[in-house]
Every structure is written in structure tokens, then in C-alpha cells.
Design brief:
The structure holds two protein chains of two kinds. By secondary structure, chain A is an alpha+beta fold. In chain A, 35% of the residues lie in helices and 25% in strands. Chain A has a single domain, classed as Mth169, Chain: A, CATH 3.30.1280.10. Chain A contains two helices and three strands, in the order βαβαβ. The longest helix of chain A is centred in the C-terminal third of the chain and has 16 residues. Chain B has a nine-stranded mixed β-sheet, with helices on both faces. In chain B, strands 5-8 form a two-stranded antiparallel ribbon. Chain B has one domain: Rossmann fold, CATH 3.40.50. In chain B, a hairpin with a 5-residue loop joins strand 10 and strand 11. Classes of the chains: A alpha+beta, B alpha/beta.
């Protein structure tokens, strides 16, 4: 089963890379962008076949390694 | 006094630290990250570098390596653990010291000498250092110290800030903040002050002909405080 995880920076954490991307987009003529926040995306292929169990395991992975909860939020995408 | 320096894959200041510790009288051992047991130590150092290529987040992989469980147990039982640069990043990922280190505010890798002001001397790292201001070297891409407002309050209430970036006279202002750290924080302690994480490299300031001697002051003082 493949499970996807999206990690994003929390709202009040500075994201200088997002800012630079925003400025570059602006320079390219994409003038209607309000803000850009950069994050991370993971695809985890697990042997677990039970949906709920797999999600619980991935949640544990997020808390223990994939995300740093001081600055990041994680979102687990439901497997299809 | 016995010390141990942990080498992770990608550490590159481990040998500099070895030279510095030995120069000031420590009997130092190099310890590989995949070992389970720490040798008997009065001080454990997590050195600078780019452990695991800085993948995921700086220090995140190293914080889960085999030796780290022993280092965490050692720290929790009052042992002296010092993390320099990448070692500081590893320490925050273990949770031994609060906060995180973000990408530098202006997205530059910074490599230069800085002045830091000692904020607290009631600890074995800085006790009896006569100077208020030390000149150290920094070299990092992710040294922008960040923590939540609640954490900051706790850090300040417990006087856990070790050193702040400043000018040569000890003035702590925004213009002397190289990387955007909250409150110019360059180094912090855990609550008990046996664990110190800091971005500057004292081990690069132990030779007057090459750099400076404020690192010498630091290490001489440290070994005396541990005796």
C-alpha cells in the first residue's frame, strides 16, 4: 500500500526559500501570487495491507522522524 | 579527564575537536555512530559537519543513530554533552535542548568570525571564564535558532541561553545577528545546564598563528571546571 505524506511549515515559521520563489515568480510575470510556502512530499510504500493500521504507522513515522513538530505540520493523504 | 567525540557519516570537524581536546589535556576517544556503548567519559562531544548529508533536516538522521541512545541516557543522568554546529542541530533533533535550527535568514552559507556574549556563567562550560565576550568562528547554512513563544519563555525563565551574537563590546543587536536567530541566540543549554548546543566552533580558535585564542580560553576553563 502506498501512503503519501505532505509536510508543511507552520504558519508563523519563516520560509525564506518560499519567499525567494515568490519573488522569482513575481519577476516572471506571475503577479497575482500572495504567498509561497515550500514543503516536502513523501511516498511510503508499506507492506501493511490494513488501511487504518498503515495510516497509524505512518503517523508514528511523521511524529518520530519525518516532521519536526516544533516547526512543521504533517498531513497523511488517504491511500486510494 | 576523559572525553569522547562521536563521528557520524558526514562529520568533518571531529578531528579538529580531537586535536583541541587533547591540546588542553583531555584523553579523547573517537566513537563511531554505529557503536552502542559510550566509553567512560566526562564529556561527550557531537562535532560539526554534515551528518547524513543534511538529508531531511540537518541532524535528524544522526539523532536516531545507534550511539545516540547512549548519549541521551548519559545526558539524562547528568553527563556533560556538548554539540557544536551540526552537533547542535543533532541535539535539538533529540529534544535534549529545546527549539530548532532553520535555514539562515538570508539563505547564505555563512563562514566568518563572530563575537558572542556569555549570558550565563553558572554552569561548567563558562564558569570562571574572565571574558564577557569571546571571538569564535561560525560556518553554517542552518543556524537560525527558532522556538515557540512558550519555549522561549521557559528558556528565558530558566536562564538557558548560553551565548548571544554581539559586537566586540558585547552589544547584542539585530545588526550583529548573522543568521536571523531569535534573540541573537548562538547557543543554549538544557534546563540542568549539563547539555550545551552552540553554532560557533571553539575548536577553530585554539592557535594564535592560525586564528585566535578564545577557543583556548574556553577549553582550558572547561577542563578545569570538570576536575
Amino acid at each position: 500500500m502506498k501512503i503519501s505524506v505532505i509536510i508543511t511549515l507552520k504558519k508563523d515559521v519563516l520560509d525564506p526559500q518560499g519567499k525567494v520563489i515568490h519573488q522569482t515568480l513575481d519577476g516572471m510575470g506571475f503577479n497575482d501570487v500572495n504567498e509561497v510556502r515550500q514543503g516536502k512530499y513523501f511516498e511510503i510504500d508499506t507492506k501493511e495491507t490494513d488501511n487504518d493500521k498503515a495510516k497509524a504507522k505512518v503517523e508514528e513515522m511523521c511524529k518520530k522522524l519525518l516532521a519536526n513538530l516544533v516547526i512543521e505540520n504533517y498531513k497523511i493523504i488517504d491511500p486510494k | 579527564m576523559k572525553s569522547s567525540v562521536i563521528t557520524f557519516p558526514g562529520s568533518n570537524c571531529d578531528r579538529d575537536m580531537d586535536v583541541a581536546l587533547k591540546k588542553f589535556g583531555f584523553k579523547n576517544k573517537m566513537v563511531w555512530h554505529a557503536d552502542a556503548e559510550l566509553p567512560k567519559s566526562d564529556l561527550v562531544v557531537l562535532p560539526g559537519g554534515f551528518s547524513y548529508g543534511d538529508y531531511l533536516r540537518c541532524g535528524s538522521m544522526a539523532s536516531k543513530s545507534k550511539i545516540m541512545q547512549s548519549v541521551i541516557n548519559f545526558a539524562n543522568s547528568g553527563g556533560m554533552v556538548m554539540g557544536i554546529c551540526n552537533g547542535f542541530q543533532i541535539l535539538v533533533e533529540t529534544g535534549l535542548v529545546p527549539g530548532v535550527l532553520l535555514r539562515n535568514k538570508y539563505l547564505e552559507f555563512i563562514c566568518k568570525n563572530v563575537f558572542v556574549k556569555i549570558n550565563d556563567k553558572k554552569n561548567k562550560y563558562f564558569k570562571n571564564v574572565n571574558n564577557e565576550v569571546l571571538e569564535f568562528h561560525i560556518a553554517h547554512n542552518e543556524g537560525n535558532y527558532f522556538c515557540t513563544q512558550d519555549q522561549l519563555k521557559e528558556i528565558e525563565d530558566n536562564n538557558q541561553i548560553a551565548i548571544n551574537y554581539c559586537d566586540e563590546n558585547g552589544k547584542i543587536e539585530d545588526q550583529f545577528n548573522p543568521n536571523g536567530s531569535i534573540k541573537n541566540i548562538a547557543g543554549i543549554f538544557n534546563k540542568e545546564k549539563n547539555v550545551l548546543g552552540m553554532m560557533p566552533h571553539p575548536e577553530r580558535m585554539i592557535d594564535t598563528s592560525l586564528s585566535g585564542e578564545d577557543g583556548s580560553l574556553f577549553f582550558k576553563n572547561l577542563i578545569n571546571n570538570l576536575k
